[in-house]
Amino acid sequence: MNIKRSKFSKIKKKYLQFIKSQEIPKEPFKDKLKQFNNFYIPICDMIYKQRSKNKTKLIGLAGGQGSGKSTISKILKILLKEKFNLETVIISIDDFYKTLKDRKKMSKNFSKLFLIRGVPGTHDTKMLFNCLTKLKKKSFSKILIPKFDKSTDDRCKKRKWTRVIKKPDIVIFEGWCVGAIAQKKNSLTKAINDLERQEDKDLVWRKKVNDELKDKYRNIFNLIDILIFLKVPSFKHVYKWRLLQEKKLRRVSKGKKIMNNNQIKKFIMFYERTTLNMMKTLGKISKIFIKIDTKHCLKSIKFN
Fold first, then answer.
1. What does the alpha-carbon distance between residue 46 and residue 281 come to, in Å, rounded to a whole number?
2. Is there a contact between 121 and 208 (Cβ–Cβ < 8 Å)?
C-alpha cells in the first residue's frame, strides 16, 4: 500500500512521540528511525497484506519477561491505525491469570508451586479461549476483557475491565508464553534450577505445566494467525530486564506489595524451563522472528 510522503511523515511523528513518552533506554535518533523503517513498518505491512475483509486477525506476540512486548504492541497499534486505519485491540495473557482463590485451590490439589502466577496452568484458559473466539467471530458483540493487578496478585473487579464495543480488525495477543509448545517427557526429568531441584523433586509441577501446554494452551494458540517471537540474548537478560519492570512498578504501586530482588530471582525460575524451550523452538515456527540485542534494541528480523 503506497502512501503519500506527508502521511508517512505523520506516522513517523506519531511513532517518535510515543517512544519519547515511554521509559525506554536512550538510543540515538538514527537507531529509532532504523527500528521504525526496518522492523515496525515491515511488520505492519505484512499484517495488512494478510488481513481478510470482515475477519479479525489474531497476532500472537511472544517473548521473555522484559523483552518489550507491551511497548511493541502499542507501537504496532499506533502504526496499524495511522497507516492502514485498522481497528486494533491489545490483549495480554497476564490479564487472564486465575484468581488468587483459584490458585490456592490448585496449589492444594497439585503442587504448592501453582500458588505463584506465571506458568501454564495458572491462567483461566476457558475464559481466555472464549474471549479470543468471541473477538474473532464475524457476528461481533461487545465484550469485557479482564484486568489483573500484579501488585495485589489478584484479578481486578469487573468495573475495571476493558470494554470492547467495536469489532476489531486486528487483535494483538501478547504474553511471555504465547505460542509455547510442550517438551518431550524425557526432557522433564533433569532439574534446570534450584526451584525444580528443591521444590519439585517428584516432577508433579513441571509435568502438569507440560500437560497444560499440550492440551488447553495448544487449543488457544491454534487460534493465532500470525505469531511474532522476540528472542532475548540469554535467560540472564530476562532477570535483568525483569528487575527494571519491577522498578517501574514500585513507582506506581502506591505502597502495594512489590517483590525485592531475591524474590524476583526465584520468581523467574518458574518461567525458565518454558522460556528456554521457546528460545529453541519458536524461531522455526513463528512467522516473524526477531532477535533482541543486549541493549534491548531490535537486532534482526526474519519473515518465515
1. 22
2. yes
Burial classification of residue 262, based on how many CB atoms lie within 10 Å of its CB (0-12 exposed, 13-18 middle, 19 or more buried):
exposed
List, in sequence order, every beta strand (DSSP E) within the chain.
57-63, 88-92, 143-145, 148-149, 154-155, 162-164, 170-175, 226-231, 288-292, 298-303
Cβ–Cβ < 8 Å for 69, 119: no
Look-up of cell digits 525444580: 196
Euclidean distance between CA atoms 169 and 52, whole angstroms = 9
Q: Please state which CATH number belongs to domain 33-303.
A: 3.40.50.300
The residues near 277 (Cβ < 8 Å, ≥ 6 apart) are: 180, 181, 183, 187
CA distance 51 to 237: 34
Query: Cα–chain-centroid distance for residue 37?
Result: 23
Paired strand residues for 164: 143
| Mean pLDDT, 10 residues at a time, the chain of 304 residues | 73 90 67 91 96 91 90 96 96 97 97 96 98 94 94 93 96 97 96 97 97 98 98 90 75 65 89 96 96 90 95
How far is CA 208 from each of CA 10, 99, 106, 220, 239, rounded to the nearest angstrom?
Answer: 49, 19, 11, 17, 24
Q: At what angle do helices 69-84 and 41-49 cross, to 10 degrees?
A: 60
**Grid cell of 132 as nine digits:** 479470543
